[in-house]
Amino acid sequence: MDRQRDEETPLLIAEPTHHDAAAIRNTADAAVRWLAAVWNVIKVTLLSSWLNVLLAFVPLGLVAGRQNWGPTSVFTLNFIAIIPLAAILSFATEEVAQSLGDTLGGLLNATFGNAVELIVTIVALRANELEIVQTSLLGSMLSNMLLVLGMCFLLGGIFNMMDEHGVGKEQTFSPGTAQTTCSIMILTSAAIIIPTTLSGVINHGGTTDDSNASILSLSRAMSVILLLLYGLYLVFALRTHKHLFEPQVAPEQDNLALPSNTDPTPHMHLTGLSSSVVLLLVTLLISFCAHYMVSSIDDVAQTYGISKKFIGLILIPIVGNAAEHSTACVVAVKDKMDLAMSVAIGSTIQIGLLATPVLVLVAWPMGRELTLQFGSFETVAFTISAVAVYSVVQDGKSNYLEGAMLLGLYVFIALAFWASPVENA
Question: What membrane topology was assigned to this protein in its record (predicted)?
Answer without folding.
Answer: Multi-pass membrane protein
